Amino acid sequence: MSQNGAPILDIRGLKRHFSVSRGMFSSKAVLKAVDGVSFSVMPQESFAVVGESGCGKTTLAKLLLALDRPTAGEVVFEGQNIFSLGRGALRRLRRDMQIIFQDPYSSLNPRMTVEDILMEPFAIHGIGSAAERRERIKRLMNACGLSQSKIAAYPHEFSGGQRQRIGIARALALNPKLVIADEPVSALDVSIQAQILNLLKDLQEEMRLTYVFISHDFSTVRHLCQRIAVMYLGRVVEMGRTEDLLGNPQHPYTEALLSAIPVPDPNIEKKRTRVILTGDVPSPLTPPAGCHFHPRCRYAVGSCKSGAPALAEVGPGHWAACPVLPFAKKPSGAALVG
């Protein structure tokens, strides 16, 4: 499922299961937040992981940075399984792997100035003299669209978009190779989201970054990411190049998500087939047997209830965990246009 060449990040059969108590007199249940996820990310690629709240995206992001330990599986970064590293080696590795958090209001220490916040990564890793650190901070602020006159200001003195720029500058302070962006624009006003996305794109080209972009919104990732993986209840159900996945979805869940995206052109809107999902989202504590999506799927057949379909290649570089949809769906043009 990887492209030609050596991936910078290789996720192999990654699982994270949690034991959850149901009550004093009930047996514990197992919540499979991430359940056998595999994909590869190439150097300087932007790779998106898309899905609804509760599908396991944030748990996956924590695993990619070794902020949590997996139940099974590997995360291989530049040829090393990060979960096999000792504490010191993992600490050094963190210079190359950073994260941009979702909420710019809670991810910054309100008692620290911008200078303190951006100085902290250098202090933790013992990089540079005080003068060198300060010069680097000024360059970071310029690169992220922050005025140097605000270097002594506190987070509450900035808008949401400016706070997220501070968070981005902090993530890039040590010149990382890989950045995990966990819904970095979902907490911002729509008018600011495009500015932050454009900033991330410019910084990627300038610093030769690799992104794993966590999101629930196809519209957010379609201009930034080359490939997309769609998650549902802990599993990847479809993965492929952005233009292929958005233009010709091969899993019923992806098809339903795309059909719900508003399109500004009324002529296109009239041609689209709206997919209305029935039933409620299953509890991750008691997911349906077989394909987790089958109770809500209009294409479901008997075999969908018994066996969980594996990802299969349905086109060049395009993978889907559905043996039914490619044969059941009639061609209807692009699913997402604009």
Q: Summary?
A:
Helix content is 30%, strand content 22%. The chain is α/β, with parallel strands linked by helices.
First and last CA, distance: 28 Å
Helix fraction, binned, reads 25-40%
Q: Radius of gyration, rounded?
A: 21 Å
User: Would you identify the regions where 5 or more consecutive residues have pLDDT less than 50?
Assistant: 330-338
Order of strands across the main sheet: 6-7-8-3-9-10-12-11
Topology of this protein?
Elements: E1 9-20, E2 29-41, E3 46-50, H1 57-64, E4 72-77, E5 80-81, H2 87-93, E6 97-100, H3 114-125, H4 130-143, H5 160-172, E7 178-182, H6 190-207, E8 210-215, H7 218-221, E9 227-232, E10 235-241, H8 242-247, H9 252-259, H10 266-271, E11 312-315, E12 318-320, H11 325-328
Parallel strand pairs: 3-8, 3-9, 6-7, 7-8
Antiparallel strand pairs: 1-2, 1-4, 4-5, 9-10, 10-12, 11-12
What features would you describe in this structure?
The protein is an alpha/beta fold and 338 residues long. It is built from eleven helices and twelve strands. The strands form two sheets. An eight-stranded mixed beta sheet has the order 6-7-8-3-9-10-12-11. Strands 2-1-4-5 form a four-stranded antiparallel beta sheet, with helices on one face. The longest helix has 18 residues, at 190-207. The radius of gyration is 21 Å and the shape is globular.
Key attributes of the depicted protein:
338 residues; alpha/beta; 8-stranded mixed β-sheet; 4-stranded antiparallel β-sheet; 30% helix; 22% strand; globular
